[in-house]
Specification:
This protein is an alpha+beta fold. It contains 10 helices and 10 strands. It folds into 2 domains: about 90 residues, Phosphorylase Kinase, domain 1 (2-Layer Sandwich); about 160 residues, Aminoglycoside phosphotransferase (APH), C-terminal lobe (Aminoglycoside 3'-phosphotransferase, Chain: A, domain 2, Alpha-Beta Complex), CATH 3.90.1200.10. The strands form 3 sheets. A 5-stranded antiparallel β-sheet has the order 1-2-3-5-4. Strands 6-8-9 form a 3-stranded antiparallel β-sheet, with helices on one face. A two-stranded antiparallel sheet has the order 7-10. The radius of gyration is 19 Å and the shape is globular. It starts with 11 loop residues before the first helix and ends with a helix.
Length: about 270
Amino acid sequence: MADSAEWEQLPAASRQAVERHTGPVAGASPGGQGVSTDIRLILRTESGGVFIKGTGPDAGDLERGRLALGAALASHVTPLGPPLLFRVQADGWDITGWPALPGRPADLTPGSADIPKLTGLLAELGTIRAPDDVPMRSVREDWGNFTDNPALLDGNSLVHTDPHGGNFIVDGNQAWLLDWGWAMRGPAWISAVRFILFLMEAGWKPAAAEKVVTRVPAWADTPADVISAHAVSSIPSWERAVRRQPGNDGLRRWLGLARAWGEYRERA
């Protein structure tokens, strides 16, 4: 996606639709980066800051679907994530509004004091069933063709597939998990698996990263052979992805992480 549009560049109808919820907007500042939205801004209003993100007229179905899913799940994941304040659609723009949270992105590096707060969120997430009234893809549907044992991916829990440091916000003792547009239906332990890989990317060794997520019951209660089977069987999917896009450094990095974790599980 292109850089976020400035507030003043939005069509008048879209700005008016937002201001019906926020009141007059005194100014706007960038609201961070996002791969599936066209606009991410923090609006200054008389009642405080409001974070908006949305898609424009040229957005594809995938981007629109991500935005819609995040909005639909908001009431199911509060207070893990912030509440949805509003969603407006005007002049080709689809915009959601959220509280502008205080704090900063989480630090996932070894020794970070943020880690217990994040595992606390993941522990609570593991208790949430994927809502029946919100259409979403399943982990098996998306990843089943890339593993030798797709049945391992069956489940009815709400799974956050992208728990990297930027999708956590920490403010003192409070933390939130953001960006639910990438959520899926599946086994609860998948969220912890994804977190392990992001911990490893931040410098953790596999054994130490796994020790961190023992605080997450959905992980701790899952048989070790299930975890190992998933870790090992996922490596070929990353290998195939790298063969299709040999110049993609991100895919190569994730292949390295998957191999390191899978090899550790084979030895453990």
